[in-house]
Amino acid sequence: MTKYTGSITVNIDVNTCYDLVLQYFTSIGFSLRNGVKPNNLIFERGSNWTADVGIGTEGFEKEWRTKKIRVEVNITSSTSGTLITCTYGISALMLDMFGKDRTRVDKDIMELKNCINNATKIVPSTTTPIAKEREVIIKEIVKIPCKYCGTLVEITENKCPSCGGNLK
Known about the structure:
Layout: E1 2-10, H1 14-27, E2 31-36, E3 40-45, H2 57-66, E4 69-78, E5 81-90, H3 100-119, E6 143-145, E7 152-154
Antiparallel strand pairs: 1-5, 2-3, 3-4, 4-5, 6-7
Helix pairs in contact: 1-3
């Protein structure tokens, strides 16, 4: 088994980091094999018997997603933040042509860092309200029957709008 190790440092607490690392690796097809919160995770993906699926970037990406890979992740606090160390163990049965595995490991680790940084961005608060408050005015209208025709008329009226009778 060929091993590649890469590390990144992020500015979040160890527990949050554990959760984000777990989310990231499962989102790219790895299965959690073992985990001891908040410091260690072991993931696996793929098979030793993956066929060569082609040459070029597209073929390599397909091969990479099915290649037998074991990733051991250690998360520790350091003076400069939280240190994440990822050790990729890649099956010796699968050839690493032109150093692509090392390049892909580095890319995975940078994507992990971007994922963590994007998940922990703080959205600045706005000083303007999102929606204006609505002012509600309740107006009570009192109506009385006209003593001449019985039509309901607002109490503020002087004459009945129906028969013209004097209401005061």
